[in-house]
Amino acid sequence: MILDTNVLEQMDALVARAGTSDPYELADFLRVSIHDITSNKLIAFVVRKSGVICIGLNQRLNFAKKMVVLMHEVTHVACHMDYLNTFGLCYGELSPFQNLKNKCIARQEYEANVVAADFNLPTDEVLEMLGYNNAALREYRRFLAAFERHRQEYEQFLSSTIFTAQSRWARQKLFDWRKRMKEWQDELEEMQHDLTYCGDFMTTAEIAKEFGLPRSIVDYKLEALRLRGYDLDSVELVSYKQVFR
Predict the structure, then answer these.
(1) Among 19, 117, 141, 175, which is 20 to 30 Å from 128 by CA?
(2) What is the reported pLDDT for 238?
């Protein structure tokens, strides 16, 4: 799914104008009324009728989920009303925060999920839980990038010498490359082992439990961080134990 990056920018601008990122206060700033609803299925909705916009929010949600879902709906109001005006009168939410990898999720829902997760999960806390600024992890990430460069160079050398490997020079060069690659791989595995057992990092499931939210919301927060320029390719791992063992 490709996010319209203007959505994050639009919400940043809205928060700046309103002087708050609290979804209740943002709704008030947008002159949107919020109503409690009771339903076994419907989580929330946005409806526009006679020029008046209302948000319905299931009162059975706990506080943390209510704040995220409400920000989701506020994002619809701030960024997606043109779609609502064209194709219908209501956004109804039965199961917001579908799996991030769901290819069938509508663009508007994906964008609202990214924004809601981004503004409700504090960036500094999430990065700390991921160990993003940990010195050992930074060193590992640098070494991992260097290892990948060495691996590509080795493959290029291997392909360029495949027809001359019978020469003494080529055989010695290949031997030296393989020896170095083995040394780098051993060092990488040692760093991975140290990271696995240091206990300084939390999995996405553990982060979700810490905030009392579904794991899918944490996944959307990490998606937002990537879109904001954070390099999480080597950080956002489902579990260090599963990845490194």
Answers:
(1) 19
(2) 38
